[in-house]
Amino acid sequence: MSYLDQFMQQWKVYLKQQLSLCGLNYVVSAADGSTDIKANSLAYFAWQRTHSIELVGVDEARDEVAWVMLEKQLKAFADKAEKGTFDLVSKLHLEESQIQIVLNFSYDEEQHIVLVS
Q: What total of structural domains would you count in the chain?
């Protein structure tokens, strides 16, 4: 599984937890999993936007921006992970399966984005 797929799965786990806290369910469609992740992410962003005093008057198009920004962050981390893993495997003689990268997600209510670290 690629690092991007792994990171999307980590986001999915976090997203399910957050949706549950909001009283929402993670909806699974007949389509592929990436479509579900995006649709559920947009539902989460919409809920956050409509339930936040700081985001009163923010247009729903901002939810799509939040998704694009999250996706770009995950892709950037995946690229770094690919390069970093190669270096660790070659320098420390590790197996790639021994390397585990766990991301942290936090929703920034003021900017209406998810920060990844």
A: 1
**Against a cut of 0.70, is the pTM above it?**
yes
Structure tokens at 95: 């197996």
The string over 13-26, giving b where at least 16 C-beta atoms fall within 10 Å of a residue's C-beta and e elsewhere, is ebbeebbeeeebeb
Residue 28 lies in domain: 3-116
Q: In angstroms, rounded to a whole number, what is the distance separating the alpha carbons of residues 116 and 61?
A: 21
Mean pLDDT by runs of 10 across the 117 residues of the chain is: 94 97 92 86 95 84 97 97 86 82 95 95
H or E segment to which residue 91 belongs: helix 61-92
